[in-house]
Design brief:
This protein has about 750 residues and is an alpha+beta fold. Among the domains are: about 55-225, Glutaredoxin (3-Layer(aba) Sandwich); about 390-465, no CATH class; about 660-740, Glutaredoxin (3-Layer(aba) Sandwich), CATH 3.40.30. It is globular and about 80 Å long.
Length: about 750
Amino acid sequence: MSLLLHEPVSLLLVGMMAWSLMATDSGYCENKNTSMNRLSKTNRDGFPPIPDRSTLPPDGGPEFNRLVFSTSPYLLQHARNPVDWYPWGDEAFKKAAAENKPVFLSIGYSTCHWCHVMAHESFEDPEVAAFLREHFVAIKVDREERPDIDAVYMDFCQATTGGGGWPLSVFLTPDRKPFYAGTYFPRESRYGMPGILDILGHIDRLWHQERSRLETNTDAVVKALRPRGERASDTLNPALMETAIALFSDSFDSTWGGFGRAPKFPMAHNLIFMIRRAQSTKDSTLLEMVEHTLLSMARGGLYDQLGYGFCRYSVDARWHVPHFEKMLYDNALLLMAYVEAWQLTGNPIFANTARETATYLRRELVTVEGGLASAENADSEGVEGRFYVFTRDEIITALGSETGALIADFYGVTASGNFEHGQNVLFVAADPDQFAATHGLSSESFRQKLLESRRRLWEVREARIHPSLDDKILTGWNGLAIAALSRAGVALNEPDLIETASRAADFILEKMNLPGDRLLRSFREGKAGVAAFLEDYAFLTWGLIELYQATFNARYLERALAYNQRTLKDFLDKKTGLLYLTAHDGEQLFMRPVAAYDGAIPAGQSVAALNCLRLARLTGSSRLENTANQLMNAVSDRVAENPTAFGLMLTALDFASGDGQEIVLAGRDMAAVASMAEVLRGRYLPRASLVFLPTGKDGQEIRSMAPFLNSLPENIDQAVAYVCRKQACRLPAKTPTELSEQLPAVWQTTPGDK
């Protein structure tokens, strides 16, 4: 039972542009049966079907290479290359040692545009393939399946070149140590950029003529890269939260929103930190920065104006021209950010953007099994963005000359194009109400025209070849989606979102779980594999905590506690307090990376610290509270050096130091309990921990996980709510009104329905 969603309530959409930016009629392209039809599209781009692998020789035969036996979509994209690719493993390195050859390691992912470019230019080229076969052993790695391999060699690339990215190209000794790295190389040298053939020839000469010097230099770099072995010198200072806010403020783009210059990444976990800090400190200026950023992203081409969902980043400062790939983790994190922004401000645009983003996740990424696929490609038919863009003539043909011209102007579409080759990315180019007035239309009539036009353009786009889908299910990224959908389902009163989160969680718990609370990372084609990494345990724990508070199913809390315990057992360096990316018994690379800094996704160290804090409050465990403090203090030196790289860790610090509430709902009268829960659903309570205590024997399971509940009566007929702060509880609230009076006062800067 989902107590928080016991009775649906209507939301009064009020505020500036409530109807116009994100059409409230978001069901026009949503199939409530989600993925059954969407993932089996016959017009989705991709690679040709793979034959029965049991009929192929070990090297793949004349048509394929060894990657044909992989399940990774990225590796399968390269299975027909003439390059004699090997997957990562002992076989390849033994061959390199036996033949005295260096290893060429290529790392990327299936939705990476420049990975596709390098593949077409070089890895499909017979001359490049022949040179690699003769002088190197070539290995291909999917960074999403093996983030550990990607992390250690990306660190080397950044340390030696000052930059990084994908495709990542690294040259290794047969004992797996890197000695040269770069990213994308064209086939031939041009514009000062070395070509792959020149690089390969240069590396081959170095290997045979200056190998000892090469290995000496490599050993020095590798030694410098290894994590520091000492514990941080201080505790994590709460003042660093304000230091980070000041730095974010300094880099804020007051014109277009966002932080820093182009290219601009959403970095939703930083926005979540700022939303929570704004609420903690009542800082309206900070909140305005976040609101401006979220509104600009939702108006821009970064957001798919027809089919919803966010692209990975914007190549320009205005959020207008995206890099078109859509990642599960981005959309999950942004869904959380928009939900929290709506809860705090009441701005209905944020609520609608959240609903539409959730619609995208459910419609396009939910698999038949119930998990969520990893990403949609940037390219279709070999061209980046082709699926998404329109010419002005296409819009006028679809909508008619008068309406087509109107809608084209609204979406910034020109005859010459705002993108490449006369094509246009759709973005909201004007305030809808002002635009309507300028064209002699009422706001309501323009709204209807816009809804109908969006529906028609979406139908036109649906007939195109869709970008390929990376349909592997990753435990960690699904954890983020479970957390986001659970949070959104509660806040927006959308039971379907919680149902989707529950299906994903149940799939992971059934198919990705091993004895001893161990997890696997990746699932595809009916097979689960690859030992899970820190982010898998930490992100799934996060998702299960949110799902427990959305459903009050004690099984999810029990699993969250179990995976959190496994996280600390398998990944924690007790000497330093740092969490490694890989488990203690995982594959040993040339160094063992820690996961301290936020990147496109939050750091595992930060998420684990927040998980420990939340589980401590849910169960009353002082041990977990102490562990959380150790995890936060372990990165204190790093946070002091670069506070803006630790948005999620600072969110954990805000949780630890802020005005938190532990709230226990109890009672036999479920309708009355649901009315109490409705009060909580309507409030922004980011530091609250919510537990439901069933009556009688049904409460034994949750009491065993949270012994502090044993002080409460076993049989409680009337619904009550206990609101506690720092282990001090007030008298139980017996009505929704009494509960509301015991909660913190609502602070928001934008009028809205709470």
